[in-house]
Recover the amino acids of this structure.
């Protein structure tokens, strides 16, 4: 699918600012006049502010940089030029939660120069959208021959009002894999983005970044009051960013919604990334998959060579047989290669081999058998965060996958630090993950990252970037205290604002009858079905064991639900409470609904006005059975059918920790 671009307007206006500093303020409003960014200089220091209609979102907030040896670029500046542009296009995603996306903004470029003898230049580009604002710094090439070492970025977010922030801590051992907490902005420490804020002024905000290339990713540190500041993830020696000649930062983004659900259907992050660079995308296909995976996490199998080894030729063929019988596209096989030990997950720089097979596993025999049964194997590379070891083998490893017909690869990075010294989200990690993504594209491999760098919209440019982890997934329910019921009602408003997540839902045996004693999935089985709608990913794992799907009528919904969509809408939702999402299949006239709740039971009446008003649909409903909730018969699913039209309403009951999944099949 090729993107179609419709350039409707491009207007450039250049004005020359006064050579002496004045009180001039430069403003740019969004096309609908909804959001406004204002820029000015205060005593030679750049600052910006943001408003949504009559509501001030950010008070004047300072900008600039500190380089090595206390050299700074944020004072004694003057405006030498400004440029304004308007832009409007509609483009198509190769795959996604919405087929056609409108990219409509007004832009202001402010060109600054130091008054000092060096007269260094710095441009700041602002874009104002109806769903938020963004800005970035461009330090143009200007004859600087020495390396540039950025020690700090001074970008501030001076929030006008207090608010409730939904956050996870930065610089922790588990990267992004923490439960979300909520607290007042004034009580934050240092947190990851996206940072979602329910402001006391009634607005909902998400602070993040877009198009992160060859730069450190940003975290946000609380300074005082309701003020936050960019805190770039450092290299191990303390330098934040290394560059030469020039640099362009990622876009600093602030998505703004009047309801929390507005944030979910904002595509500002994608719109700030360059268009697709892969000319032939025919090999990039969304899919549903199973895996030799959950059994390892619950303790049925081992990742390593043993009498209970999961990745054996025998186990693989049995899983292929089940996938083929049920029409499931793909099978993930973890642990197929040499190097796995019982200590594989420890910070020990394990030496995995990415071309030699584990005992009792024959890669070519398995891939041939899969091909005969119309099932495709997903390859797996666990690096153990030993990046040097992986990069030495990456060409031969990818070539092996090409040879045996593997087109998709999951790549893990278990470890607190890459190479035991660099943050996953520092400049080293940013460049590493982008390098592997581009290398995979050269080999026509799609990528699924675990323990990744956060998503900043690069799937628009490289649509082989299918999904990633970057949060606590289903696996935590297998061997820890697990994820509480409200966790999945927080994800759509926080982590998922950045991009698709490989959450691995679809567990029907939520009580985990075999495995680690006392562990369970903290939801009903019906909620597990609904998660395939509320948690977007172009690749969705049916994570349970084959024997737990055998003979289960609810498996039908898991097989039916698509992974590529024409449109997405959010019908209701409150952060940490509940959410109801509907999506339209890109390949049919069918709609799908997922509704989930936290620890509280809920009843909703849903208008079906989103359906085609001239059609009748069969609503295939998978709901918590009567009396079912988190602690009472949580595996019971009531399946029913009824004919509905766009004029009807549908009443939903969600048990505590439960959910409802519906397929609306056009008749």
């Amino acid at each position: 699918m090729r993107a179609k671009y419709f350039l409707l307007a491009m207007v450039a206006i250049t004005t020359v600012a006064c050579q002496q500093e004045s009180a001039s303020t430069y403003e740019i409003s969004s096309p609908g006049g909804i959001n406004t960014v204002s820029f000015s200089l205060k005593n030679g220091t750049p600052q910006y502010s943001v408003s949504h209609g009559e509501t001030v979102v950010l008070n004047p907030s300072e900008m600039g940089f500190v380089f090595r040896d206390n050299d700074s670029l944020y004072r004694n500046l003057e405006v030498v030029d400004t440029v304004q542009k308007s832009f409007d296009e509609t483009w198509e995603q190769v795959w996604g939660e919405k087929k056609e996306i409108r990219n409509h903004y007004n832009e202001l470029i402010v060109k600054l120069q130091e008054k000092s003898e060096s007269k260094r230049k710095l441009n700041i580009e602002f874009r104002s959208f109806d769903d938020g604002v963004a800005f970035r710094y461009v330090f143009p090439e200007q004859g600087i021959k020495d390396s540039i070492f950025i020690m700090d970025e001074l970008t501030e977010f001076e929030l006008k009002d207090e608010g409730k922030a939904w956050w996870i801590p930065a610089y922790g051992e588990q990267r992004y894999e923490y439960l979300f907490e909520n607290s007042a902005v004034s009580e934050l420490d240092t947190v990851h983005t996206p940072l979602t804020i329910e402001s006391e002024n009634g607005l909902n905000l998400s602070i993040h970044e877009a198009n992160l290339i060859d730069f450190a990713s940003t975290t946000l540190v609380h300074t005082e009051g309701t003020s936050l500041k960019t805190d770039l993830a450092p290299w191990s020696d303390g330098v934040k960013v290394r560059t030469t000649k020039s640099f362009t930062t990622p876009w600093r983004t602030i998505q703004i919604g009047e309801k929390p659900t507005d944030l979910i259907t904002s595509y500002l992050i994608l719109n700030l990334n360059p268009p697709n660079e892969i000319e032939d995308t025919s090999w990039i296909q969304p899919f549903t998959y199973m895996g030799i995976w959950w059994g390892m996490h619950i303790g049925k199998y081992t990742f390593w060579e043993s009498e209970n080894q999961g990745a054996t030729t025998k186990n693989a063929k049995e899983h292929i047989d089940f996938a083929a019988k049920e029409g499931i596209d793909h099978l993930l096989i973890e642990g197929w290669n040499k190097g796995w030990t019982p200590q594989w997950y420890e910070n020990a720089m394990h030496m995995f081999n990415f071309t030699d097979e584990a005992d009792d596993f024959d890669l070519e025999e398995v891939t041939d058998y899969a091909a005969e049964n119309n099932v495709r194997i997903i390859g797996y590379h666990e690096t153990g965060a030993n990046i040097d070891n992986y990069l030495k083998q990456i060409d031969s490893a990818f070539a092996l996958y090409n040879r045996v017909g593997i087109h998709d690869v999951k790549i893990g990075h278990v470890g607190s630090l890459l190479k035991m010294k660099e943050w996953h989200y520092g400049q080293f990690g940013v460049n590493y993950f982008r390098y592997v993504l581009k290398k995979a594209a050269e080999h026509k491999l799609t990528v699924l990252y675990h323990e990744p760098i956060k998503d900043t919209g690069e799937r628009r440019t490289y649509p082989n970037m299918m999904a990633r982890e970057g949060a606590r997934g289903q696996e935590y329910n297998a061997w820890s205290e697990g994820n509480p019921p409200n966790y999945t009602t927080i994800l759509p408003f926080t982590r998922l604002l950045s991009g698709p997540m490989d959450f691995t839902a679809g567990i029907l045996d939520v009580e985990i009858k075999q495995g680690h004693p006392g562990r369970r999935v903290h939801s009903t089985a019906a909620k597990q079905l609904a998660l395939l709608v509320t948690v977007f990913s172009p690749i969705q794992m049916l994570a349970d064991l084959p024997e737990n799907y055998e003979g289960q009528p609810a498996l039908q919904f898991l097989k039916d639900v698509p992974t590529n969509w024409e449109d997405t809408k959010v019908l209701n939702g409150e952060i940490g409470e509940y959410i109801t999402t509907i999506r339209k299949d890109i390949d049919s006239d069918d709609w799908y609904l997922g509704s989930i709740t936290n620890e509280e039971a809920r009843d909703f009446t849903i208008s079906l006005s989103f359906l085609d008003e001239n059609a009748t649909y069969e609503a295939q409903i998978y709901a918590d059975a009567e009396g079912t909730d988190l602690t009472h018969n949580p595996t019971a699913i009531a399946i029913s059918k009824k004919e509905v039209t766009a004029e009807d309403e549908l009443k939903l009951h969600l048990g505590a920790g439960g959910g409802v999944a519906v397929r609306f099949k056009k008749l």
